[in-house]
Amino acid sequence: MKTGHDDRILIINAEVDGRGGTTSVRTNGDRIVAIGPELSRAPGEYVVDARGGMLLPGLHDHHIHLLALAAAHGSVLCGPPAVHRRDELAAALHRAAAAVAPGGWVRGVGYHDSVAGPLTRDDLDTMVADVPVRVQHRSGALWMLNSAAIAAAGLEDHAGAAVSAPPGAGRGPAGRPDGRLFRLDDWLRERLPPAPAPDLSAVGRQLAAFGVIGVTDATAGTGPAEAELLAAAVIRGDLPQRLTLTGGPELAPPEHPRIRLGPVKIVIDEGEPVEFDTLVATVRAARTAGRAVAVHCVTRAALVLILAVLETAGGEAAGHPSHPGDRVEHGAVIPPDLVDQLVERGLTVVTQPHFITERGDEYLNEVDGEDLPWLYRCAGLRRAGAAVAAGTDAPFGDPDPWRSMRAAVTRRTAAGNLIGPDEAVGPAAALALYLGDPARPGGPARRVIPGAPADLCLLAEPGPAALRTLSADLVTLTIAAGRIIADNR
Ligand SMILES: [Zn+2]
Fold first, then answer.
1. Parallel/antiparallel/unpaired status of strands 55-57 and 475-480
2. Which CA distances in Å does 99 have to 72, 76, 95, 104, 270?
3. How far is the CA of 165 from the centre of ligand 1 (A)?
4. Quick one: 227 and 295 in the same domain?
5. Which of 38, 161, 369, 407 is spaced 20 to 30 Å from 264 by Cα?
6. How far is the CA of 274 from the centre of ligand 1 (A)?
7. How many CA atoms lie within 13 A of 70 on its CB side?
8. pLDDT over 50 (residue 2)
C-alpha cells in the first residue's frame, strides 16, 4: 500500500462526471490542477490507473461523533444487531467484566429497550455485580449504571445511602438512585478512572476505507478540551480527513488547513423543560459569531419549537437573518404541514436514512402509525424544495455511508419491511447526500474539476455498475487534501 505525502498524483483512465473511462485527473498539493482526456505523466508524478472506474469527490459524513466512535471500538455492543435478548446482553457484559483490568469499568454501547426493557441498576446487577458497568443507550443521551458503578461514581455513600445527585440522575423508591443518568456525560466522565486518550487513528483508517475525506463532528458537548483532542489528531495525521467542528458559539479550534468551524450545535430533547429564551439567545450568539446553527431535532414538537425559535431570533433584528448553513439534525419526523416552513427558512435536513434499516422494525412497533410515512424523509423533502444531506451519526448508526445510501434507495428495514416508500431516492441522489460542501451540506454536490480540493474517491467500477451496488467494497483509493489516505488496490 502506498499512502502518504504524494504531492503530485496523476490518475489515468477514470470516469469523471459520466465522461468515458479515459479521463485523466492531475493533483498538485491539495488541489486538482488539470483534467483532460489523456494527460501524460510529468516527472515525479505518482500515477494511478483507474481502469475505467468512477472517480468521485470524496465523501463527507455530515454528522458523526468521532470521540464516541473511537471509544466504541473498545466497548461491548449491547443492542441489535449484535444483541437481541436479555441473556445475550448478560453474557456479553459478563465476558467483558472478566477481562477488565483491576479498577476498570465495562463500557457498553448501543443499548435498546427491545433487549431487556428500560435497564436499571437492579437489572445490571443480575448480570455483573462486582465490576462497575455503564451501558449507553443507543440514542447517546442516557447511561445506565450497575450498583458497583453507582458506588464508584459517588452517587451513594458506602452505606448505600443516596448522596446529592445532579439533575438528570434517576431515582427509585425512597430516593434510591436507579442508575439511569440522562445527559450527564460530563458529570460521569469526571468520576471515571482516567482513561488513555482515545485513539482516533483506527477511526481515521476505517473512514478512509469507505472513501470518506471529511467529517462534521456534530457532538453537542464539544468544548475546548474535545476540540483540542480532535484537532491534535488531525494535525498528527491520525485523522487524515478534513474536520468540521460544531460545539458552542465560543468554540475556537486551532487554525489548520483541514479544520474548520461549522454550525453551533443546539440540542432540543424530548421531555426536557424548554428554555425558549435561552434557545433564542444561543441562535443569536451563533449569528454574532458568524455561524449557522445545527439543531438536534427528533420529534414533531421539537421541530415546531425550533421553527419558532428561528423566527424569533431572526425576526426582530435585521442583524440576525436566517443563515445559509442552518440545519436540522436527524429530522426523524417531518410531517407534511411543517415542510413549507422548513423550506422558507432555508433549513437543510441532515438525515440518517440507514436508521430505517437499522431501527425500522422497532419503529414499526413503537412509532405512531400516522408518523411512519414521515420518518427520516428524503425524496418528499426534496420535491418540496428542501435541502437534504446525510450523516451516519456513528457510533449511533453504522459508520459506513454506503449502507446509508442503500437504505435511502430501498427504504427497507433489516427484516425487509418498507417504510415511507415515497421517500426513496435514486442511487445518484443517495450518493449526493454525502457529496455536499460541509458548509452547505444540502447544496450542490462538490465536483471533480480543476481548482477544486484534491479530495477524491476512486471506485472499482464505472458509474452505472457502481450506482447499482452502492457498496464500500468498490472503494479502491481515497485521497484527502492531496494525500492518499486509503489504498485498497
Ligand atoms: Zn448525533
1. unpaired
2. 16, 12, 7, 10, 37
3. 26
4. yes
5. 407
6. 20
7. 20
8. no
Q: What is the CATH classification number for the domain harbouring 152?
A: 3.10.310.70
Ligand 1 centroid from CA 10, angstroms:
37
Q: State the pLDDT at residue 76.
A: 92
What would the pLDDT profile of 230-244 be if each residue is shown by its tens digit?
999 999 999 999 999
| Ligand 1 centroid, distance to 147 Cα (angstroms) | 29
Domain extent for 146: 74-189
- Which range is most confident: 174-183, 297-306, 398-407? 398-407
Looking at 171, 189, 207, the residue that finishes a domain is 189
Same domain, 325 and 416: yes
pTM recorded for the entire structure? 0.86
Q: How far is the CA of 106 from the centre of ligand 1 (A)?
A: 23
Q: Which among 189, 207, 242 is the end of a domain?
A: 189
User: What was the pLDDT predicted at 420?
Assistant: 97
End-to-end CA distance of the chain: 8
Ligand 1 center from residue 288 Cα (angstroms): 25
pLDDT tens per residue, range 445-487: 999 999 999 999 999 999 999 999 999 999 999 999 999 999 9
**427 contacts: CB under 8 Å, gap ≥ 6:** 405, 409, 467, 468, 470
Q: What are the Cα distances from residue 49, in Å, to 53, 280, 449?
A: 9, 53, 18
> What are the tens digits of pLDDT across the range 315-340?
544 444 567 889 999 999 999 999 99
Mean pLDDT of 53-70: 97
Q: Is residue 49 part of a domain?
A: no
Question: From the CA of 317, how far away is ligand 1's center (Å)?
Answer: 31
* Residue 310 maps to a domain: yes
For residue 277, tell me if it sits in a domain. Answer: yes
Cα of 64 to ligand 1 centre, how many Å?
6
Q: How far is the CA of 279 from the centre of ligand 1 (A)?
A: 19
Cα(393) to ligand 1 centroid in Å equals 5
Domains identified in the chain, total number: 2
Distance 268 CA to ligand 1 centre (A): 12
**At 469, phi and psi to the nearest 5?**
-90, -40
- Residue 316 is predicted with a pLDDT of 45
Cα 124 off chain centre by: 28
| 256 and 136 fall within a common domain | no
Instruction: Tell whether 360 and 303 lie within a shared domain.
Output: yes
Measured in Å, residue 296 CA sits from the centre of ligand 1 at 8
**What is the CA(249)–ligand 1 centre distance, in A?**
18
Task: Report CA(329)–ligand 1 centroid distance (Å).
Answer: 8
Q: What is the CATH classification number for the domain harbouring 431?
A: 3.20.20.140
Q: Are residues 84 and 208 in the same domain?
A: no
126 shares a domain with 224: no
